[in-house]
Amino acid sequence: MSFDEIHNVIRQYETDKIKVSTAYGDGGIDPLWPRLERAAINQTEQGLATFSRYGIWANTVRDNIREAVTLLESGNQGEAMPLLVRAANALSAFSEIQHLLDKEDV
Question: Whole-prediction pTM value?
Answer without folding.
Answer: 0.90
